[in-house]
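Minutes, project check-in
Item: structure for the 174-residue chain
Input as provided by the requester:
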Amino acid sequence: MMISPRTHGNYARNDHNKVYGEIDKSDMVKLIKLLPYSIQTMLDVGSGCGDALFHIAEISPQMDYIAGIEIVKYRHEKSMLRWERAPFEIQNKIILYEGNFEAFSFHTYDLVYCCNTMFDDDLNEKLVTKLLCECNLFFVLYTKEPKCMHLYIDTMNVNTTWQKKVPVYIFQIQ
């Protein structure tokens, strides 16, 4: 399910923190499989319409639950419509939140994923600080964060809705 922010009326042209784009769902699965430990729980910060979340829930029986946080109301509503139509076993695995990531804890997740390329410096700083304080095991960002480089373990190129072969950086809390 692809949507364009421009066609849904709530596109914030001047807010770079809310630009829309998603990782290819099969690349998200490859990314999870690349991690050196089995992942039971995952949080997608800026989950959009939830395409990757639903795909993971459908093909990853080992996952206990997968959560998504989306700040843009119409994207969250799209993911909620999809959740309402999903089979019970998928609904039981996916938790969808609307709001700013700052209001949610990262403590209960094995993996926190965020496409932070368009975050401004202030929001990126808040995200990195929160990851360093609250992340349990792994986090994935689209930027090499100097504060996190001591935790860096790998890079993977992923396809996204805006470009092919975009590097993502994998960090492990030790």
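Outcome recorded: The helical segments are 25-34, 51-59, 73-85, 88-91, 121-134.
No further action items on this chain.
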